[in-house]
Protein 1
Amino acid sequence: MIQFRHVLEALLNPFFLLLLMLLWAVIVRPGRFGMLIIFLFSLLISTGWLAKAWTQFLENKYTPVETIDPNVTWAVVLSGGQTELPDNPFYAQLYSTSIKRLLEGVRLWRMNPQIHLLLSGGGYGFEKAEAQRMRELADWFSIPATQISVEDQSINTADQAKAIKAWVKDQPFYLVTSAVHMPRAMALCEEQGLKPIAAPTDYTLYWNDERWQKLYLPNAQNIVFLTVAWHEILGMVWFRMQGLFR
């Protein structure tokens, strides 16, 4: 089922759909109207309107933690990706998403030094799990070793939601992940009977500067952010469909 979902997501990728439409135009030669449809679709996915709307729809569902609850003593930080770069420092092998999520966990710990950090994330055959590299980076902030745990076996959000239950059990905890990913992460945790409190971070800042043309003029980066948001929306749809068939 997971492999089918990945194939389906690849086929529904906005850029891949554009390529299919162009291939169709080469074979069928649909005329001006068909080419106009392709042109409008390319504008839709490459300007910032749709990408920004979908991204903000996901990111605005939860707000950052401003006041911490002293009774909550767990913060679970979900990893956000890594790569393998021999002869490079360990932190250079973590995606910026992973680093931003870890920093939010550190911020929560500083607001309440009684918080226990659980770093979660395995790897796809990499030499070291993402959570292990995040653990090394967490050591830079003088957090007591007794207040950091590592879950390094899970390979996706659904696995993480199941794995962290062994640590937090029925206790409420701050769930730290990227804002765009938070709705799906919260839903998966709640499905496991967990009690997550959203602590979003890593907001999409791309359109929030003086370069207005990023929103109005076509560019490839808009397609990237659209694809990220579409991945989360498809993930939520898949999650709901699985719930209907259980």
Note: The mean pLDDT is 92.
Protein 2
Amino acid sequence: MSATDASTPTEPAIQQDDIRQIERLIRPYIRRTPVVELRGSDFGLGHVRLSLKLEGLQYAGSFKTRGAFTNLLLRVVPRAGVAAASGGNHGVAVAYAAKQLGVAARIFVPRISSPAKIKRIRDFAADLVIGGESYAEALAAAEQFVRDSGALSIHAFDQRETLLGQGTLGLEFHQQAPDLDAVLASVGGGGLIGGIAAWYRDSIAVVGVEPERSPTMTKAFEAGAPVDAEAGGIAADSLAPRRIGDQVFPIASRYVKQVLLVTDDEIRAAQKALWETLRVVAEPGGVAAFSALLAGKYQFHSGEHIGVVISGGNTVAVNFDLQEPAIKSTPAFPAHDE
């Protein structure tokens, strides 16, 4: 699906200079995550250069930490602290950032959330509220708490500060690998791809990748606006909101060149390949973009230099038994917020 099929919006509000300013603001609080340079032949892909940005090594285990700190440092935090609804990485990141800055945080998650991510939220000493069967129910509870308490709500993707923070990943990747021809990133609510696209704009091909069972951006491009889509699959705890963000859509429809869909089996295969080749563990949502490359969904030209964001590593659901190397995952569920 090509973004050019969607209607052309007005100039997006987030500019490169905005992202540069935010990068300077949050730099003391985030890691400059490494980029690993590889040959395509390492994965049987032929003559292509690969640069993998390992954002799973970020504080709190995902790119979400960038947006969390941006919110806390740019906005006035009331005495009641902050609140966020999440099925996973957003909640972990907000809990971590709040702990670092001495801010009270209450994180709302549904009962079907990943045990690994629930544990990390607890480890960062946030006030964790588990309830409801879906992200929508957790979000409703969080919104009610914000109304009652006066706490600051931090949205996972559909917020300017969040997009600015995620845009710093694009800036950093550009500094580390300045000659990329394309960059592939996973899509859920669109905060990551929106931030990256706001940085790169038309300078390289920005490609989104989402699970076939959670085609939020694909549906939005088809409709010409954010619309509800189905939500499920192996990566549902990080890539399965009901729709992409209203603030994301103008950026994505202008600068994202195409969106590719991948299957659960292709995501599992990419997890396994990343472990076997690099000994890097990634959660399903974190490796979705890489799976599009390995599965042949992204058609590259000989000699192309492709950047891929490995966006998160918050998982304990990997079987390292050499006799049974398959990647395991929690059951699919209709969630989340990423």
Note: The chain is about 40% helix and 15% strand.
